[in-house]
Amino acid sequence: MHIYQFKPGLQGAGRTAEFLRENYVGMDWPGIGNAENMSGEHILHLLGQMDLNQAEEHTQLIRFEEIMMFCHQMKDGDYLLMMDEDRVHLGDLGDYYYLHPAGTEETSLHHRRGVTWLKSFEREELNKELQQFLLRPDTISRFDRPFSQEQFEGWATKSEEETGRVHVDTQTIQRAIEVLQEAMQSDDADRRVRAAIAILQYAK
């Protein structure tokens, strides 16, 4: 599988919460309809029909690369990293689909891919290669080598030595929460407050 990074940018500004809630990411390229079965040559032809100055022509080349990557190169089962300020959301990509403009708002992002969101990280939790990858200015870009799912999940985040954190299994965490919940029933008011604070800090 391949790893892609996606920045919502101007088109998706303010829609990150919607992407996460509705399980998709979207783009919009005026003049380009359903690109599922559209060849690269035809996409270039449509872009070439627009009356542009030299600077805009360069932008159109970037747009062509975005269209080809989003609509054709991405595949079901690839992974997507979406920037959200200092947070990064990891998702499993689904198929491309086109939302026809009829009956939709003008601001709709008509070119879409389904996403199953898997987990979220603080950007600093990712290893240095991925942090550098996320600094690329492109709206969409692909990491320079493929991975298996197992390889990626074992490689993507920093090691315990790098973070200074020790891994704690889910069962131990659950037991610790139960202990704190029991402490909240204590007759000691100070103990109840400390237990409540610890639970609230964990929930952040």
- What's the β-strand tally? 6
**Overall pLDDT confidence:** 83
Outline the low-pLDDT stretches. none
**Tally of structural domains:** 2
Order of helical and strand elements: EHEHHEEEHEHHHH
What is the helical fraction, as a range of percent? 40-55%
- Rg, rounded, reads 22 Å
Annotation field: number of helices: 8
Q: How do the strands line up in the largest sheet?
A: 2-5-4-3-1-6
Structural class: alpha+beta
What gap, in angstroms, lies between the N and C termini?
32 Å
Tell the overall outline: elongated
Strand content: 15-25%
Largest beta sheet, briefly? 6 strands, mixed
Structure description:
The chain has 204 residues and is an alpha+beta fold. It has 2 domains: 3-159, no CATH class; 170-203, no CATH class. It is built from 8 helices and 6 strands, in the order E-H-E-H-H-E-E-E-H-E-H-H-H-H. It has helices at residues 16-22, 40-48, 54-73, 128-134, 149-155, 160-163, 170-183, 189-203; strands spanning 3-6, 24-27, 79-84, 87-98, 111-122, 140-142. It has a 6-stranded mixed sheet, with helices on one face. It is elongated, with a radius of gyration of 22 Å. It starts with a strand and ends with a helix. The model has no long low-confidence stretch (mean pLDDT 83).
Annotate the secondary structure layout:
Elements: E1 3-6, H1 16-22, E2 24-27, H2 40-48, H3 54-73, E3 79-84, E4 87-98, E5 111-122, H4 128-134, E6 140-142, H5 149-155, H6 160-163, H7 170-183, H8 189-203
Parallel strand pairs: 1-3
Antiparallel strand pairs: 1-6, 2-5, 3-4, 4-5
Helix pairs in contact: 2-3, 7-8
